[in-house]
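Input chain follows. Return structure tokens only.
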Amino acid sequence: METYKYGENSLIRSMGFNPYKIESILKNGILSKNKAMELGISLSRNYNGYNLDDYISLTRPFYSNKNDERSCYYSLIPKNVNLIIENQPFLYDQKYNYFNHPDEVLVEDIIPNEKFTGLVIPENLKDRKLMELPMINVKTNFYINIKENSEELIKYLNTYGHEINEEEYHDLMEELKLTIKALNQDKDNEELKQDFFEIKIEISAFLAEEVQKTFDKLLGKENTTLQEMIEYLNYKTLGLPIYTTGKEFNKKL
């Protein structure tokens, strides 16, 4: 099997499983928050305050200890669809406190899509049905992040002619809002914390089912898999080589 030979300055960007985010990155490149606003491109975050507004966070795998729980590689690469990036200048200096992981680097403003050299799908996830994958980051604690990510995805599915169950979606978001309000008034309430986590799981599962329906209809399949969705989005955009990864980027699909 063909192995991707990443070098000292190869970079990886994790993209999650949300097809809107993946297609947007493949079309527009990777943008910082401020660059996206300048270009008029919708860009929601998974977290508030993690990346600086003018910078993009990436993994430098040549220097990753893949068994170190503090590393970007350990935290992100085996759990997401990823992009391989080459020939891109970056900033790295551990003296500064905006680096959160030992193998993290930053790029200012934009990474154009001509710097992308491949896509990586985790071996253990490539055959998963889309409905089994998270479509929002359930670790975020910010209502606005969940709302913006959800609504971007819904608008994207609408472009394929898919209409979601609006009543169910609004009921879920209202429950989320009320749970956050209650938790803000009783921050140490363990039952409310569990409710908060569970409603985020429910919203993600709802969106995943809608993504499944959209791509099943689009591709004329039943139970479209992650690999099949990525192959379609890749064919629609850049036509990059696609690799799977176990311990390494170990084979080309």
